[in-house]
Specification:
267 residues, Rossmann fold, alpha/beta, binds NADP nicotinamide-adenine-dinucleotide phosphate, disordered N terminus, 46% helix
């Protein structure tokens, strides 16, 4: 059990010598009600910029992603002292890693307030059905499974928030019909997965409607990242602001909506 959590704990407070000290320090930070955001796909692109924004605004961050080495690199650049962040190995296609996340957080004394389901893929080449299957697994099933696995944990926070990083390319209102603004776009795997993620957001918002958990889908706009490419009009940090805004909505805000850079979007 201890070994299982060693990776997460080792990087939480790298200068401390005893495990008990590390855990009690983590518990102290909970006592002072600091907020923590877990961001998937936090090693690059929008996830990395969102992590920067959360840290700049006084949040602690759990950088989650597939490569611990990549996560450790970015964590060191944003939090050189290693006092405000942790890293967590989390492949969104790994059911076992997703299911063990709450246990790992709790063993490390970390309470998260915000879950940002940011990790995503945009299959462009290869067999279209294989691409669709992988996009659904990564972009939808992974995000839903992580949200449900963490729901009891999140409900221990005072103002839990979940942000589903979706896309206008998943909006029927923006893409379907010849006069829709994005009518010319046709990326089967990606657009189908984001449309499904949008409906998953609607269903999850209904499921948690009687709780303080607020869950919304967002579109960051077309941003310059590995996925968005160099021609995108928006920077990754501009896109990350939409994530941050949805993650910090005050109590009583709408849940189950689709938020873009200019406000509410059509599904
Ligand atoms: N950029 C845009 O214009 C744009 C517009 C609308 C929506 N979005 C959405 O914004 C989110 C972030 O996109 P981005 O532009 O930052 O893309 P990106 O630069 O390609 O980054 C994608 C991130 O997702 C991670 N990821 C992919 N598959 C994963 C898996 N199975 N498990 C865990 N992590 C995984 C990647 O990790 P690795 O480094 O390990 O691959 C990387 O950290 C995505 O959901 C995307 O659909 C982007």
């Amino acid at each position: 059990m201890f070994k299982k959590h060693a990776k997460l704990l080792r990087v939480c407070c790298p200068r401390d010598s005893s495990l008990l000290t590390k855990i009690s320090q983590r518990k102290n930070h909970l006592t002072f009600m600091e907020k923590t955001a877990l961001i998937t796909g936090a090693n690059r692109g929008l996830g990395l910029e969102a992590a920067r924004l959360f840290l700049e605004n006084g949040y602690r961050v759990v950088f989650a992603g597939r490569s611990l080495a990549a996560l450790e690199n970015v964590r060191r650049s944003l939090d050189p002292e290693g006092t405000k962040s942790s890293i967590l190995e989390l492949d969104m296609t790994s059911s076992s890693q997703i299911q063990s996340t709450p246990e790992q957080l709790e063993a490390a004394g970390i309470q998260i307030d915000v879950l940002v389901n940011n990790a995503g893929i945009f299959p462009r080449d290869g067999d279209p059905v294989d691409g669709l299957s992988l996009a659904l697994h990564t972009n939808v099933t992974g995000a839903v499974a992580l949200t449900l696995a963490l729901s009891s944990h999140l409900l221990k926070a005072l103002q839990p928030r979940v942000v589903m990083v979706s896309s206008k390319l998943g909006s029927f209102g923006r893409c379907a019909g010849s006069d829709a603004p994005l009518a010319e776009k046709s990326f089967l795997a990606y657009q189908t997965s984001k449309a499904a993620l949008n409906m998953a957001t609607v269903c999850l918002a209904k499921q948690f409607a009687a709780t303080p958990l607020i869950i919304n889908a967002i579109s960051p706009g077309w941003c310059r990242t590995d996925m968005g490419g160099d021609d995108a009009p928006r920077s990754a940090s501009e896109g990350a602001k939409v994530i941050f805004q949805a993650a910090t909505l005050p109590a009583g805000s709408p849940s189950g909506t689709f938020i873009g850079e200019d406000g509410i979007l059509p599904w």
